[in-house]
Amino acid sequence: MRALIQGIAIAVVALTFAQSAHAGGPTTPGEIENPKDPQAAQLKKDGDYQYNVEANYAKAIDLYKQGARIEDAGIFAYDIGQCYRLLGSYKDAIWHYRRFLAHAKPEGKLKEVVEGFIANMQAELDKAASTQAPQGPASGDDRNDRGGAGTTGPPTTPHTNDGGATPLVGALSQPAAPWYDDRVGWAILGGGVALAAVGTGFEWDASNLYDDANDPTHSETLRTQEKSRADDRRLAGFVVAGVGVAAIVVGVIKLASNPPARLDTMPPRTARNVGLSVGPGGICLTGRF
Question: Which stretch of DSSP H or E encloses residue 123?
Fold first, then answer.
């Protein structure tokens, strides 16, 4: 029984470590905090439809702002910044990207890409400002319409003399992140492999104890004790290995179903096309990656 308790304790510690391995901020758009309020979540979904399907970024901005007024989730600032950037409204995009950085505190590749957007857009704005005549300030109504709940929005973006938005240089285009750039998935998978190895060790030890329990040279009392210890080790091995296999499956699904897409154009994911089936002959993972 003591071996069983030790096995369960090992499993709990390993899984806790795997979860704590990603205690920081989001590193991909799919990890950004989403709204929990049902109405805000529906507005987020509607905005994603306008962004992904209709490519109507102005409408998406309006929906995202409505959602942000209900629940100020970090994803809204990121999405609004994406839309303004694609519309060429770089001052607005910079303001919302900076608000996202302060609110969500992203890390890794996501932080690097967003800061790259800001730097490149600011450079383009500075370049445009040095080659065009000064322009009057934006109206108060227009300024107050920016941002989410309880915030003062950024000024409007200056335009070129021909009426078009200041162009964004190609340096903003970021390469797609590799499919394996997922610390959470790897942490879960690694914890599962470690647990499976520990469980296998318990099973191997139990097998040796069973051999000793069947040794005719041992006394009956000793053989009984060895068999009891073997039973405990086998049960502990089954529990730990089972948790490990489950963690491996979860880790594989996480890696397969959440591949980071292009960070410069991707809003948070709305669907995953992955299926898992378990049968008497094994486990089958299917999906479109």
Answer: helix 108-129
Segment holding 287, helix H or strand E = strand 282-287
DSSP state at residue 139: P
Q: What pTM value is reported for the model?
A: 0.46
Between 56-60, 102-106, 229-233, the lowest mean confidence (pLDDT) is in: 229-233
Count of alpha carbons within 13 angstroms of residue 229, beta-carbon side? 15
Distances in Å between the Cα of 9 and the Cα atoms of 204, 246, 272 are 19, 16, 33
Strand partners, 283: 278
What are the two backbone dihedrals, phi and then psi, of residue 73, each rounded to the nearest 5 degrees?
-75, 150
- Contact by Cβ (8 Å): 212, 218: yes
| DSSP character string of 257-269 | H-----TTTPPPP
What are residue 279's DSSP bridge partners? 282
pLDDT digits 0-9 by tens, 151-200: 445 544 443 333 333 333 333 334 444 555 666 777 888 888 898 888 89
Q: What does the radius of gyration of the chain's CA atoms come to, in whole angstroms?
A: 27
Helices of type H across the chain: 2-20, 38-49, 57-70, 74-87, 90-104, 108-129, 140-144, 183-213, 220-257
CA angle 121, 93, 179 (to 5 degrees): 85
In the chain, where are the structural domains located?
2-20+180-258, 29-172
CATH number, domain 29-172: 1.25.40.10
H or E stretch covering 39 = helix 38-49
Of the two residues 118 and 264, the one the predictor is more confident about is: 118
